[in-house]
Amino acid sequence: TNVLTGIGNKKSVYVVIDNKLVKKPVKTGAGNYEKVQILEGLSETDNVVKPQDGLELVEGLKVEAKKVPWP
For residue 65, what pLDDT is reported? Predict the structure, then answer.
């Protein structure tokens, strides 16, 4: 999926905490190109960031979160 970064067992996602991007390591399970199971590392209340085309995510970057429905 395009919200995961890293390879092998060193995968992570970016979440918004206090209007800043934070990179959180996650443990993944079954999945494909479109969806993947997150086994550890996220809570139900974490706001996961989906990057826009051409935008590089960097930890610590100030952001303004906008909630949108997940496809």
Answer: 76
